[in-house]
Each structure stands twice: as C-alpha cells, then as structure tokens.
Amino acid sequence: MGKSSISIIGCGWLGLPLAEKLIEEGYDVKGSTTTPQKLEILHEKKIEAHQILLNPHLHCSTTEIFFDSNILIINIPPSRNSNVLEFFPQQIKSVMAEINKSKIDYMLFISSTSVYAENNKLVTEDSELDPVTDSGKALVIAEGLIRADINFQTTILRFGGLVGPGRNPARFFAGRKDIPGGNTKINLIHLDDCIDIILTIIKSRLWGEVFNAVSDFHPTKKDFYLKAAEHYNLEKPEFSEVDQDYKIVSSAKIKSIMGNEFVFRKFY
Prior knowledge:
Order of helices and strands: EHEHEEEHEHEEHEEEHEHEH
Structural class: alpha/beta
Largest sheet: 7 strands, parallel
Helix content: 25-40%
C-alpha cells in the first residue's frame, strides 16, 4: 500500500516543519496559508500550496484539489476575537462541510490541554473538560462537533505549551514583577516531539483516539522562567507568593504506544 496523501490546514510554526518532515517520509503533502506571500515559501519546500481563508466561512479557489487527500490535519488555533466562542466553531463547521464532500477518511485535530480545568490535580484523557479561557471553551465546542461526525475518523491531539525554535519562552515574563503562581507546575512540549507524535499517529493508524501530549517533566513556573531568562540573557521576572490553580497533564497514554521517552524532557 502506498503512502497516504495529507492536507494540512495551517502551515505555521508547527505545520510547516511538519509538512517538511512528512515529505521527507515520502508522503504527498498539501498545505494551506492565509497569505499569498507565503505560497512561494511553501512551494520552495515542495509543499503543494493553497490559499485558504476561514472568516469564518471557507474561501479557496482550489477547494476540491486541496481536499483531495486521504488525511486532513487541522492545525489552526482559536482566534483572539471577542466572539471566539462563535467564530472558531463556525470555522470548524466550514471545514467539516468540505470534508464531507471529499474522499478524506481520517482527520487529525490539533487541540490543547487548555480544555481541562485548573483543578490542582493530574488530568488524563478521561478527565472532565472544564476550560477556564474562552479559547479553551471554543476548542471543547469544536472537539464535540468533530467527534459527532461519523463520516470520517478523527484523532484529537491535545498539546501543552509549545516550545522550540523561534519560540523564546522567556519573553512572556521577562522583567515583570509580582507574577502569581510561581510554585505551580507547568506543562510544555517541544516542537520535535509534536512532530514525532503526529508521525506515530499517522504511521500506526491511531484513529478515533484522544491523546494528551506534554513532557513528563513539570517544572514550576518560577524555576522554568527564571532559567529561561538567564539562558536568553533577559531581565529576570519576579514572582509573588500568591498561589494559582493548576493542572498536571499526563501523557502516559501516547507514551505507552510510542514506547519511548520524548526527545526533549527538559527545555533549558
């Protein structure tokens, strides 16, 4: 059996290197971008490039060609709009309408661990979804819409905070004072591990699943960001003694399938 053809909606920080790795592995890859300027960048990397806008309805002059794949990866985060609870689910509905007119059999939806409550506990894929932020709530709605569609099989992949090339974590808190929650545990994952996990799901045909994906190393916010600021030679942040609610995300399920530790256990 030949390699599957894969379409990726969202060739940004994660989607672009993912597309490159999939091509290296022998897959035919189509990728989308919202800007015409980036089409040439995708072409140069041998990605079949398509311009797709989701405002929130899907606009694309090459829709049938883009969705002519076996697998679709949706890799777009909820917007920061005030109406994200309506806007993001409508974006997903627009994509699903096209999937149901296509030959796509499998979908990978990139979600986030923000769907879980900050309940000061360990959370697994079976834990209750009770997000704090509007973007987390929008993701829960989107996940529900996708999982209710029986015309294709979907795996949902919930990543923790993303770190790696071009994402300097120290900049978030550099120089800030009285930051609460310094002793709370954080959940992070490196770009290389994100790509390895996605490849495992595709190659092992792990469809119809839900996976958390974070490093099993959970430093405190204070420890991580102080060391990150020192590493990048930035002004160190200062943390207050005020506690914050937190969660510790378990990735035991995906690790048991992959059979090995993540490449980047620590990030500094």
